[in-house]
Amino acid sequence: MSAEGGEATRRTVLFTDLVGFTEFNELSGDAAAVEVLDAQGLLVERVLEQAEDSRLVKEIGDGLLLTFDRPAVGYPASHALLRAFRQAHDAGDLPLQVRMGLHHGDVAERGHDIVGRTVNVAARVMSLAGPGELLVSDDVARECPGASLRPIGPTQLRGVPEPVWLHRALLTEPVDRRASSARRSGAAAAGGAGRQPPLEAGS
Amino acid sequence: MQSRPSEGAAGTERSGPASTVRVATDSGRIRILAEDREEVDVHGPATVTSEGGLVTITGRSEDVDVRVPAGVDLIVGSTSGRVTVEGDTGHVAIVTTSGRISVEAATSLDARSESGRIEVARVGGECCIRSGSARVDVGACLGTDISTTSGRISVGSADGPVRAHCVSGRISVEMAHRHAVSAETVSGRIDLTVPAGASGGELVSAATGSGRVVVRER
């Protein structure tokens, strides 16, 4: 299944990033940062157990690089992971929000790692996502016809002639129902005690 | 169906009626003017194709000026080129890497840039903005969802639910009427202005790790 020694193989690649982790670490200390990464690890482990042919390739600081066999597996798993992060954040178990980027294409395997344009594009897709958001490329969207996605436009990559078209994964909860908590001060956002109502206009 | 490729010409190309216009360049500046007209005019070296109601304009490093019918939907992408949209438009989606984004009026908007400043005057519907290191300024909008990494966020008048998230930067939001507002920053000041009687209860949520939170009632 997996190619060795740099041989290309098709994979669906997910990058994740905990938004504001560096600042959180500065404010809350190393022990709190380790707690967040441990909580993230448990969430990912639970979701990957349900997704066939999925793999955590590596941790990159607070970010993760994961692969799936194909978009039809990778998209629902990524969506499930996003929901799990959101639930943990809303419950006050995870003080930071996650952003994600998903792309599909050829990758070259180098030992346990993967490299190549597909990996670079997935990272770029992730970089354009906001907190609590999953963006996917057109290559993923085409393979997931039932997915609830909204096109958001093309992104140009240096050195890549054709633009990569992006879509935003939609979550279905209505806005007003989620805007229910009043909280006006404190270190909740950074200090780990915070429960942020996930008001997401337009989702 | 119609397809009219026009490659590399520096003159003006005219396309037929359009409901959606897609424009992509690498480093070239993109200026789009929406006005009372029927056709799409493209000035600058770009490839132009038209199919049904979709006009696609692809440039490279040269500036491109486009005149479109008012109310048209726009999908725009650029690496480092500045994107300016003037006039009344429909749904607008813009992605840049470092190019600055300016939008005068849209019925709905999704604008994203890693390091380019984003300025929006008016949005009549859904408004989603993502920025990395540059500031975001929104004049008037309904519900909006804005996040930046290090750029400050300023919303002049919001008449719908607002969510503003910033890692390190100031958040300033003025609510026109009673709607939910959620502002969160890891380090930075939060200034919220809400209608009289709206600062308590279930409507206002603001959290910062290391800054001041100020909620004023008008």
Structure overview:
The complex is a heterodimer of chains A (203) and B (218). Chain A has 7 helices and 8 strands. Chain A has helices spanning 21-28, 30-49, 71-90, 117-127, 138-141, 175-178, 188-191; strands at 8-18, 55-60, 63-68, 98-110, 113-115, 133-137, 149-155, 164-169. In chain A, strands 1, 2, 3, 4, 5, 6, 7 and 8 form an 8-stranded mixed sheet that branches. In chain A, helix 1 (21-28) packs across helix 2 and helix 2 (30-49) packs across helix 3. The longest helix of chain A has 20 residues, at 30-49. Chain A is globular, with a radius of gyration of 17 Å. Chain B has strands at 12-15, 20-25, 30-35, 40-43, 46-51, 54-59, 64-69, 73-78, 83-96, 101-113, 118-123, 127-131, 136-141, 144-148, 153-158, 162-168, 171-175, 181-187, 190-194, 204-208, 213-217. Chain B is mainly β and 218 residues long. The mean pLDDT of chain B is 90. Chain B has no helices and 21 strands. In chain B, strand 5 and strand 6 (54-59) form a beta hairpin. At the A-B interface, helix 1, strand 7 and helix 7 of A face strand 2, strand 8, strand 9, strand 10 and strand 12 of B.
Helices and strands in order, then pairings?
The complex is a heterodimer of chains A (203) and B (218).
Chain A: E1 8-18, H1 21-28, H2 30-49, E2 55-60, E3 63-68, H3 71-90, E4 98-110, E5 113-115, H4 117-127, E6 133-137, H5 138-141, E7 149-155, E8 164-169, H6 175-178, H7 188-191
Parallel strand pairs in A: 4-6
Antiparallel strand pairs in A: 1-3, 1-4, 2-3, 4-5, 6-8, 7-8
Chain B: E1 12-15, E2 20-25, E3 30-35, E4 40-43, E5 46-51, E6 54-59, E7 64-69, E8 73-78, E9 83-96, E10 101-113, E11 118-123, E12 127-131, E13 136-141, E14 144-148, E15 153-158, E16 162-168, E17 171-175, E18 181-187, E19 190-194, E20 204-208, E21 213-217
Parallel strand pairs in B: 2-6, 2-8, 3-7, 3-9, 8-9, 9-10, 10-11, 10-12, 11-13, 12-14, 13-15, 14-16, 15-17, 16-18, 17-19, 18-20, 19-21
Antiparallel strand pairs in B: 1-4, 4-7, 5-6
